[in-house]
Amino acid sequence: MDGAQTGLANTATATVMVTDENDNPPSFRQRLFRVAVLENQAGPLILAIPVDDEDQRGTDNWNAVFSITRGNEGGHFRVETDTHTNEGLLYIVKVLHRLRPLLLVHGFRDRRSGFGVVLVVIDSPGEHNHPPSIICTDPALQRSVTVTPLEYQSLAFKQPFTFTLPPENSGKWSLQESTGSSVVLQLAEPVPAGFYGVPLVVRSGWGVGEVQTVPVRVCECVSRAGHQECVHTLVRPRMEVEVAAIISISTLSLLLTAAVILEKPGEPKPAADVLLHYGYEGGGSPTGPLSDYSDEEEHDPLDFLDTLGPTFKHLADICTGKVERQEDG
């Protein structure tokens, strides 16, 4: 064209698309999540962790990527992203046998966008069977126990610990000598012997914690081999008492049966031994005395007498007719 007026010219339109930049890190809606799961179960979704992201919804920049950074050394959990809600879905993949494992879960996309950290506490309620600690009722013996919480690899449940009794404490218990790693639970006033669950609030440096129950047995103690042992009261087992009662009742029944059968049929009876109708005093009655039941003995099964052992064998033989009854001359 060389700048000539008759040179050819043309125009074009350029469209510049400004896409969303990955400049907003995701943020958790809360620092702490707590979920209760049962032991010996695997597979279920136990928690959906919501996050907020200011990037354009539905884009790759908006989707967070979750990973477990600590507490999953045993491979019990996995976490994945729900692409529709941008939540972190936490699953159990191996059955839990540990007591109160703690997880640190963070979601991130790349180093430029940053990442956030959230704590997830996994509880296994109702599965902890710890033997109770012993507190003695004798003031001269032990009246306190030392409570030491378990410390986990997670930074969320590390020392120092703080210990407090909940407001509903009855005043029967007190805390002494708190060291940051343990505390002494002491009996503040006399209580009856028995088993007690003492509520105790244990919190870590992160403020993570809740009311725990410390099992305590209060009893009379004796000192043996340098430690205190409860004095056990010998109590007859309940089943043994019931069997004894049954045997006693059976014995009374046998004695009554023997007294009835050993009496001679047709023997003259005193008037007091005869059931009388009103208005016919002394005149007899169609209802005979107790001794008349001896005529019905052949209709009453008495085989159970053979099962009562040698103590009642002779009496059983008499009742079943195996031994002839001797009549008085």
Describe this protein's structure:
- It is a single-pass type I membrane protein.
- One of its GO terms (cellular component) is plasma membrane.
- This is Cadherin domain-containing protein.
- It is elongated and about 150 Å long.
- The protein is mainly beta.
- The longest helix has 24 residues, at 238-261.
- β8 (102-108) and β9 (115-123) form a beta hairpin.
- It contains two helices and 18 strands.
- The protein has helices at 238-261, 313-319, and strands spanning 27-28, 32-36, 45-49, 51-52, 65-70, 77-82, 87-92, 102-108, 115-123, 133-136, 144-147, 162-164, 173-176, 183-187, 194-203, 209-219, 221-224, 227-230.
- 9% of the residues lie in helices and 29% in strands.
- It has a four-stranded mixed sheet, with no helix packed on it.
- It has three domains: 27-123, Sandwich (Immunoglobulin-like), CATH 2.60.40; 133-230, Cadherins (Immunoglobulin-like); 238-319, no CATH class.
Number of domains: 3
CATH topology value of the largest domain: Immunoglobulin-like
Low-confidence parts, pLDDT < 50 over ≥5 residues? 108-114, 124-129, 152-156, 233-265, 268-297
Structural classification: mainly beta
- C-alpha geometry: elongated
Look at the structure and name the CATH superfamily of the largest domain.
Cadherins
What is the number of strand segments?
18
Secondary-structure element pattern, one letter each = EEEEEEEEEEEEEEEEEEHH
Q: Whole-number average pLDDT?
A: 64
CATH class of the largest domain: Mainly Beta
